[in-house]
Design brief:
The structure holds three protein chains of three kinds.
Chain A: H1 2-15, H2 19-55, H3 61-65, H4 79-110, H5 113-128, H6 131-147, H7 152-177, H8 180-188, H9 193-221, H10 225-230, H11 248-256, H12 261-297
Helix pairs in contact in A: 2-12, 4-5, 4-7, 4-9, 4-11, 5-7, 6-7, 7-9, 8-9, 9-12, 11-12
Chain B: H1 2-40, E1 86-91, H2 96-110, E2 113-118, H3 121-129, E3 135-138, H4 144-154, E4 157-171, E5 181-182, H5 184-192, H6 201-206, E6 218-222, H7 227-239, H8 241-246, E7 259-261, H9 263-273, E8 277-282, H10 283-288, E9 295-297, E10 303-304, H11 308-318, E11 342-350, E12 352-353, H12 356-371, H13 387-398, E13 401-402, E14 405-406
Parallel strand pairs in B: 1-2, 1-3, 5-9, 6-7, 6-8, 12-13
Antiparallel strand pairs in B: 3-11, 4-8, 4-11, 9-10, 13-14
Chain C: H1 4-8, H2 11-16, H3 22-60, H4 80-111, H5 114-126, H6 132-157, H7 178-202, H8 206-214, H9 219-248, H10 251-256, H11 275-286, H12 289-321
Helix pairs in contact in C: 3-12, 4-5, 4-7, 4-9, 5-7, 6-7, 7-9, 8-9, 9-12, 11-12
The chains are: A mainly alpha, B alpha/beta, C mainly alpha.
Chain lengths: 298, 411, 329
């Protein structure tokens, strides 16, 4: 195929091309694609720079431990949002980890037949559900009827739904890397399959599975759309999952649209908190993925 | 790993149980509600909730409890045994700065956390109707249809006014040394798209000696359901027949022209960002953004500046016609000093509460707000309730019941 | 524990014979139950959306999707302004992001020294980790003012004067409109399109390149004639995956699109709504009745569009990844 294409090209250049023009086009497009990559990196740099420059001045002790206070009376902080984010993520993990890893294990260890296909389909489809739609579902399913109130629990469940497919898909990749020879060796020793999975497959894939969970949690921790409809937000510290709860992305939204300069600055500060956490998580997971992939392959 | 799997399964089961438990809890409280409702509710038709009558304690008949009699001198001075430690409210953005301050102060006094989220009056009414919040907030009274929907679900609704404020007309025109004078004719004309230039003769006639630019008018309005929109369009409908016939009034209207923006802050932002634009916001949002505010022609034909005094005048001059359910309007009030786009803002409460702890916390919070809390109103640019209105509001708070008994403990 | 039969079988048949041990049966049951829960969530979600949007389908029928009046006070609902806004912003995002993303992918595979390619790709992919609300914050306070005072006046004064195309750049420049939202979306989908395209370009066999190079083609000619045609289907898949992300994006769009369902206008300087931003803005207000049905109808419409888009993208990406389908000669 390549040869035929190349012959065509050769014919073309013989007819009307000259070498200088071809080199020019080559250099020009080379420069353009370099520029494209540079643009991507530059965009990241610009956005991060803005968040750091605008957000850092908001950071002080009260910013981290205080909660929303009336403007002009006290500075206040986003402590209740940090706590809320952590609590709702915990709920999300309780839902997302067992379902995500369970489904991934089922697919990788038993995955044949119609039920496996339906499971795979469900995972892919949930992955494509816009987060706001998940929020709408949880409002109708939990907030309006079962709980009867906006609640951190509802927010956590919505985030959990977002986590499931991310955990499942990443875990599937990781479990696929566990060599069959390990399973075979274990089975050959007469160890039942379930023990093989628990004592051989899962520990081998542990680093990768942790990565899957952390990545999913980082993604869910940055979500605000579903929380608007489920956890509502809270100006005070709240540890009760059945009551409305704040979260960092929610408070960024609320503060960004407020009329107060003080709150705008805290929105940038909260954005910086999220970015720092997500940045660290990304770097660490990248490092551990590289390491565990090397270990599994090597 | 196996053990942790078991643990995970256990946690899942626990979560499921918790959900079921919560569902049952919700169910049982709601089944107990109807038994309480009929005893106090029949007189409370949607338009006239009981307790709003003129005598101070009409509904306390069944009040064997200590707080039965409605003592207008009652004072909230600290925490109260057995009250819920948190409440949730949602609604209007118009009074949000005020409520944020109130509830921060109230938390220091009683340790009760009243979480208020400004999601818009429309959402406040809806979520109140769905009973997903302990109280709603709106700066448009509920319509008869909304009231019926809420009453059918959860019993009679009380409208408790908390403060008055002004909706100001703000604009972005460079090189003006004084506030513009505008009337419902000119503002309505611009909003309808009939007046398209700032140097239109009609605007010029209201502003002698002011040089206005030969520039296109850009109008900005709210895109979400809003009590601010309700006040603004009610004023236009009251004072501009053309507007009344073409657009009308409501929390959301079908705007003939202009930009939509989310929330009071959104409108303020759009006006600030767009030269030669005009929009309407609650006063504090214009002040926060250092934006000009037009003097508005009132029913007496005078151009009046929005202020605590002019809103107070509008309120005083229309207090005589306040109905017993306190769903009233002070739009286009009579009197030379009245600012015409003034509006009360309300908290929405169900008269028959189901949970004693919540009901106690709620009534105590309301009582505090209407007595001590509102002392900060002027500081934040909101006009407090006049005594004549307070005399109707306090008994209304006393009329709130929980399972047939008065909910307010009287201190 | 282990029977003779098991120990003597080959490993592969062993793998097929699991479930004999009672523990295995329990374990398998748990896995099936967990998978079943995942399926149940999807079923519940779909059911709830169908059930709650029923009123609007009964009132408006399927024409809900293409009728253009959205007037809650009059209880008239048509989803077209939202569908239109979703499509327009996503299209803008694709037009802006696709060339850059593909270019960057080509650079990373074909030009960049291997020790730099990884870190550069990682940095661009970090963009995908930034939460939507932060893009919204940045878009609102940094990008929108630039769009309003620099980009949009420039477009109006240049492209706006052309026939036909000029219609896209009419009206006052507001900085909160389809164009701004589309641009923010472009930045957000850039890493997705780039990462997938990079994998696709990387999967093009070296023999393709070598054949061309040996005939004296320049590097770009190799890319143009041997690499890109081979990768074409996969790259289209990558773009559609990006589209899938853009369609459902909520917060960043909500904060930059201007939120107005007034009327559909060809100008990109018009404030509008997308399906997702409409839900975010009006959901809490809609409560019950027809209005709520209509909002949930928007959610269902969005779900269906996102589902179909992702389905197409997955098929295309898989086809390329599984073998040469691209340039057939």
């Amino acid at each position: 195929m390549a040869t035929i294409a190349a012959e065509g090209l050769l014919a073309k250049s013989n007819n009307r091309g000259n070498l200088r023009r071809r080199y020019f086009v080559d250099r020009l497009l080379g420069a353009l694609v370099t520029l494209a990559a540079a643009l991507g990196v530059a965009l990241l740099a610009i956005i991060i720079a803005y968040i750091v420059i605008k957000g850092l001045p908001a950071w002080n002790l009260e910013f981290f431990i205080g909660h929303t206070e009336p403007v002009g009376v006290a500075q206040g902080g986003v402590g209740q949002a940090i706590v809320g984010s952590l609590l709702m993520l915990a709920v999300a993990c309780v839902l997302g980890i067992p379902l995500g890893i369970g489904a991934a294990l089922y697919l990788s260890e038993y995955g044949r037949g119609a039920f496996a296909e339906v499971t795979q389909f469900a995972i892919e489809t949930i992955a494509g559900v816009p987060s706001i739609v998940a929020g709408a579902f949880i409002w109708a399913f939990l907030v309006k009827t079962i709980l009867g109130s906006y609640a951190g629990l509802a927010g956590g469940v919505a985030l959990g739904i977002i986590m499931i497919p991310i955990v499942a898909r990443t875990a599937q990749e990781v479990l696929r890397l566990v060599p069959d020879s390990l399973r075979e060796a274990s089975l050959a020793l007469g160890i039942p399959y379930w023990k093989t999975v628990i004592y051989i497959v899962l520990p081998t894939a542990r680093a990768g599975l942790v990565t899957a969970v952390v990545l999913a949690a980082a993604r869910a921790g940055g979500e605000s759309a579903p929380l608007l409809l489920t956890s509502l937000g809270n100006d005070f510290y709240n540890f009760d999952l059945l009551k409305p709860m704040s979260a960092l992305p929610l408070i960024i939204y609320k503060y960004a649209l407020s009329p107060y300069e003080e709150w705008h600055q805290q929105a940038w500060g909260a954005a910086l908190v999220l970015i720092v956490v997500i940045g660290i998580v990304s770097l660490v997971t990248r490092w551990s993925v590289n390491r565990s992939a090397r270990r599994l392959r090597g | 790993m196996h053990r942790s799997l078991t643990r995970i399964t256990f946690m899942l089961a626990a979560l499921a149980l918790a959900l079921v438990g919560a569902a049952c809890g919700g169910g049982s409280t709601s089944t107990s509600a109807p038994s309480a409702a009929p005893t106090t509710a029949p007189a409370a038709a949607p338009t006239a909730p009981s307790g709003a009558a003129t005598s101070p304690a009409p509904s306390a008949s069944g009040g064997a409890a200590s707080g039965g009699a409605c003592d207008v001198n009652a004072k909230i001075s600290g925490p109260y045994q057995g009250e819920a430690n948190s409440l949730t409210g949602a609604g209007a953005t118009f009074p949000q700065p005020l409520y944020t301050r109130w509830f921060a102060d109230y938390n220091k006094l009683t340790n009760v956390k009243v979480n208020y989220q400004g999601v818009g009056s429309g959402a406040g009414i809806t979520q109140f109707t769905e009973n997903t919040v302990n109280f709603g907030a709106s700066d448009a009274p509920m319509t008869d249809a909304q009231l019926k929907a809420a009453t059918d679900k959860n019993g009679p609704v009380l409208h408790i006014p908390t403060a008055f404020g002004a909706v100001v007309v703000t604009y972005n025109i460079s090189n003006l040394s004084q506030p513009l004078n505008l009337s419902a004719d000119t503002v309505g004309g611009m909003m309808l798209g009939a007046i398209t230039k700032w140097n239109d003769p009609k605007i010029a006639a209201e502003n002698p000696g002011v040089t206005l630019p030969d520039a296109d008018v850009v109008t900005v309005h709210r895109s979400d359901g809003s009590g601010t929109t309700n006040a603004f369009t009610s004023w236009l409908a009251a004072a501009n027949p053309d507007w009344k016939s073409k657009v009308g009034a409501g929390t959301t209207v079908n705007w003939p022209t202009g930009l939509g923006a989310q929330g009071n802050a959104g409108v303020a932002g759009e006006v600030k960002n767009n030269p030669n634009s005009i929009g309407y916001v609650e006063q504090i949002y214009a002040e926060q953004n250092k934006m000009p505010m037009a003097n508005i022609k009132n029913a007496a034909g005078k151009f009046v500046k929005p202020s605590l005094e002019s809103v107070g005048a509008a309120m005083t001059n229309s207090i005589a016609n306040v109905p017993n359910d306190l769903r009233f309007s002070i739009i286009n009030a009579p009197g030379d000093a009245s600012y015409p786009i003034s509006t009360p803002t309300w908290l929405l409460i169900y008269q028959n509460q189901k949970d004693p702890a919540i009901a106690t916390a709620l009534t105590r919070m309301l009582w505090w707000a209407e007595t001590d809390g509102e002392k900060v109103n002027p500081e934040l640019g909101y006009t407090p309730l006049p005594d004549a209105l307070k005399a109707k509001v306090l008994p209304m708070i006393c009329s709130i019941t929980v399972n047939g008994k008065p909910a307010f403990p009287g201190k | 524990m282990a029977t003779m039969e098991e120990t003597t079988s080959t490993a592969s048949s062993l793998l097929r014979r699991r479930g004999i041990n009672p523990g295995d049966r329990v374990f398998r049951g748990v896995m099936i139950a967990l998978s079943g829960l995942v399926i149940l969530i999807l079923v519940l979600l779909t059911y709830q959306l169908l059930h709650d949007s029923l009123p609007v389908w009964q009132a408006e029928g399927l024409s809900f999707i293409w009728s253009s009046t959205w007037d809650p006070p009059k209880d008239v609902y048509g989803a077209l302004p939202f569908v239109y806004g979703t499509l327009v912003t996503s299209l803008i995002a694709l037009i802006l992001a696709a060339p850059v993303a593909i270019g960057a992918a080509v650079f990373l595979v074909e030009y960049a020294p291997p020790q730099f390619a990884g870190p550069i790709a990682f940095m661009v992919e970090l963009l995908a980790a930034i939460p939507s609300v932060i893009f919204g914050l940045w878009g609102l306070y940094v990008m929108a003012p630039v769009m309003r005072s620099v980009v949009e006046p420039f477009l109006k004064n240049s492209a706006g004067k052309l026939p036909v195309v000029g219609g896209l750049f009419l009206g006052p420049s507001l900085g909160r409109d389809y164009l701004t939202a589309g641009t923010i979306l472009a930045i957000m989908i850039l890493p997705t399109v780039m990462a997938v395209s990079r994998e696709i370009v990387r999967s093009v066999p070296d023999t393709q390149r070598e054949g061309m190079l040996s005939l004296g083609a320049t590097r770009w000619e190799v890319i143009q004639n041997a690499v890109l045609p081979y990768a074409r289907t996969g790259i289209i898949g990558a773009i559609i995956l990006g589209l899938g992300r853009a369609l459902g994006e909520t917060m960043a769009v909500t904060m930059t699109i201007g939120n107005s369902s007034r009327q559909i206008s060809p100008s990109l300087f018009t404030p509008g709504y997308t399906l997702a931003s409409g839900i975010a803005n009006q959901f809490n207000e809609a409560g019950t009745g027809l209005y709520f049905g209509a909002i949930v109808g928007l959610a269902l419409t969005l779900l269906v569009i996102a589902f179909l888009t992702n389905l197409v993208a997955r098929i295309l990406v898989k086809r390329t990844a599984s073998g040469p389908v691209g340039a057939t000669v």
